[in-house]
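Hi, here's the filled form for the chain we discussed.

Project: internal
Contact: R.S.
Residues: 402
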Amino acid sequence: MAIRTGIIVAGALLAFGLQASAAEKNYGPGVTDTEIKIGNTAAYSGPASGFGLIAKTGEAYFRKINEEGGINGRKIVFLSYDDAYSPPKTVEQTRKLVESDEVLFMFNAVGTPTNSAVQKYLNAKKVPQLFVSSAAAKWNDPKNFPWSMGFAPSLETEGKAYAKYVLKEKPGAKIAIFYQNDDFGKDYLKGIKAGLGDKAAAMIVAEESFDVTEPTIDSHIVKLKAVGADVVFNMATPKFAAQAIKKINELNWKPLQLLSFASASIGSVIKPVGFENAQGIVSATYFKDPNDARWKDDADFKALNAFLDKYMPEANHADTLIINGYNPALLLVQVLKQCGDDLTRENVMKQAASLGDVEVGTLLPGIKVSTSSTDYAPIKQWQLMRFEGSNWQLFGDLVGRD
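And the returned structure, exactly as it came back:
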């Protein structure tokens, strides 16, 4: 079946209040009195195709917003192209979106290596690279890259949180680090080593990287078991993280496993490898888990489930990748509201960098979005969680980036 390489959504955005009739309209590329054109790249095919669900959720949410009325009668036209999680393809598709489709900005494009490949290009063109679907620390660098902003708390922060947990729980651990050989994995590696501090050299007994083009990573896991590690950091995207968990079980190896947040989805990773094989795995999150019974009467989840029932009836509500498309889409609507009739690239970036303690969608209690001209990290905290039974269980206090 052919991959759908473009998603175009039309309709009007939700009206957000009266505007002064005398207010002057100021438009950038892709904006008219009736539409706002937005660009996106995502992996609908290739080794990270599971991440395609993030963009599909954003497309569905914009369709919902459009059907409900609109912001000053403007509709969102959402153009999303398949880059197969391949940086050269990302470059090609992003150039097409900017130079041919003339989008106002890029939104929630998926992947660390893919977004990294176009960061300099978009900043040179002064095109907002907004709410990047990657938790790399590089998206919070307004001095050098003033047109790039992430959404999730950084992978370095996450890696530090895991390292500090291991120092507390298993101070004599022999640590093996399994990581993706790109910016995604290297950010984790940097954070883990920073968290371990001067104990890193003594505690880390193996570092094993892999490339996303490898059909299987079994040999890497066999090698890590052979070094006698009793703690494994599984810092991989879903396909490979699942392979690693499965292989660890097949080898009858029983290390403490710390799993990348990006691969903590019950629907995409944990359920396919078997709940019995995931017991005791530690990961982290910053939003409410749809699989957690404690949120069943939560107003934000009722809104999310109603949205999914109507606009994504085929979706697995247990898949947390949906949240990675949903929350940024809600925040984008907030930014567009703040822009009013000044829909230029400069003002979009200014408003995105002027968010003050905004509560968005399904973020965990106590976690709010805030940005400034010198702080491009919308979310700054993580919550550790452990897999028990058939769900993740939160534990401990929120962990900040410091």
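Let me know if anything looks off before we file it.
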